[in-house]
């Protein structure tokens, strides 16, 4: 089922990271201690916060981003890339004597990846940087965990005060996860992150449903668990659950598929879609992103997603 563009675009606020992705492509990923010869190196704007901001903007949302950039050469490039996508940048602050965030990403021919992140300025985003006025005009708040947890918690509290729908992509997974982080409307981990949060080994859609229920017990109103090439499982506040089958695409780069998914969830829920409808739309968004190279360059438009939905 395809979706139409609403007359008034949803207003989405993203609080999160901005990185330069240094992407090395090779036939396969190296084993520990092994040295491989890579095929290419690319500098691609990324960071989970920036990726989700670009993803939502390409889907037609009115997007504002709160984050930090360093005073290095990457900072200006990253700001320009976001501005070109139409993301509002009043909340993106300069950080003197600090590098911008950098992610070292290895991508093998199968599309699988491994990532090492240097937080840089992202690690200096504080609760004071999250201004209350940003929330007064937002419909949805998108959050991730590449900025300090205290800052994420502040954003959740401000969103609650302003009746803003809160969506947490709990990545990268962190140890000693504060339970208050799950006091959100929607949590959307992948299977490994969900397993870490709940202690449930996820091997099937049934076990994923069980883990989704656990996430709700821990505080989330709705829970969605992405399962890669097995689609996604969702469970809403009423206890109704379902499994969205995967879309048939050839994976080239899965780096930002989860970010495309989160952006699409935020957009469709802001438009009044059910959790099932939003999850189906988001699975298509993630599939399109996985079939393209690069984080932000691979983010789909609404037309891209509608084409995939129509084919399916």
User: What is the number of beta strands?
Assistant: 13
Give the class-level CATH name. Alpha Beta
Strand content: 15-25%
Mean pLDDT: 94
- What is the architecture at the second tier of CATH? 3-Layer(aba) Sandwich
Textual characterization of the structure:
This protein is α/β, with parallel strands linked by helices and 312 residues long. The protein has one domain: 3-Layer(aba) Sandwich (UDP-N-acetylmuramoyl-L-alanine:D-glutamate ligase), CATH 3.40.1190.20. 33% of the residues lie in helices and 24% in strands. It has nine helices and 13 strands. The chain has a nine-stranded mixed beta sheet, sandwiched between helices. A four-stranded mixed beta sheet has the order 3-2-6-7. Strand 4, helix 2 and strand 5 form a beta-alpha-beta unit. Helix 1 crosses helix 7, helix 5 packs across helix 6 and helix 8 crosses helix 9. The longest helix has 16 residues. The mean pLDDT is 94.
């Amino acid at each position: 089922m395809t979706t139409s563009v609403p007359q008034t675009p949803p207003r989405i606020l993203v609080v999160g990271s901005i990185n330069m992705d240094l992407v090395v492509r090779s036939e396969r990923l190296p084993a520990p201690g092994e040295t491989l010869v890579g095929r290419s190196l690319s500098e691609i704007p990324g960071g989970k916060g920036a990726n989700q901001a670009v993803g939502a903007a390409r889907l037609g949302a009115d997007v504002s981003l709160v984050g930090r950039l360093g005073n290095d050469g990457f900072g200006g490039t990253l700001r320009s890339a976001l501005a070109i996508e139409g993301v509002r940048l009043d909340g993106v602050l300069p950080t003197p004597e600090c590098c911008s965030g950098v992610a070292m990403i290895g991508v093998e021919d199968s599309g699988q990846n491994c990532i090492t992140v240097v937080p840089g300025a992202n690690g200096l985003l504080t609760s004071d940087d999250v201004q209350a006025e940003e929330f007064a005009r937002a419909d949805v708040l998108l959050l991730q965990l590449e900025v300090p947890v205290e800052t994420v918690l502040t954003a959740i509290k401000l969103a609650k005060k302003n009746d803003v729908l809160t969506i947490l992509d709990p990545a990268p997974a962190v140890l000693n996860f504060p339970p208050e982080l799950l006091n959100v409307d929607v949590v959307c981990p992948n299977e490994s992150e969900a397993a870490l949060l709940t202690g449930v080994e996820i091997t099937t859609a049934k076990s994923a449903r069980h883990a989704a229920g656990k996430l709700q017990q821990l505080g989330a109103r709705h829970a969605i668990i992405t399962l890669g090439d097995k689609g996604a499982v969702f469970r809403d506040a009423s206890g109704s659950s379902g499994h969205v089958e995967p879309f048939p695409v050839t994976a080239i780069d899965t780096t930002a598929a989860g970010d495309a998914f989160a952006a699409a969830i935020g957009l469709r829920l802001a438009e009044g879609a059910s959790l099932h409808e939003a999850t189906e739309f988001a699975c298509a968004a993630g599939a399109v992103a996985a079939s393209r190279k690069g984080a932000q360059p691979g983010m789909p438009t609404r037309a891209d997603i509608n084409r995939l939905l129509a084919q399916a």
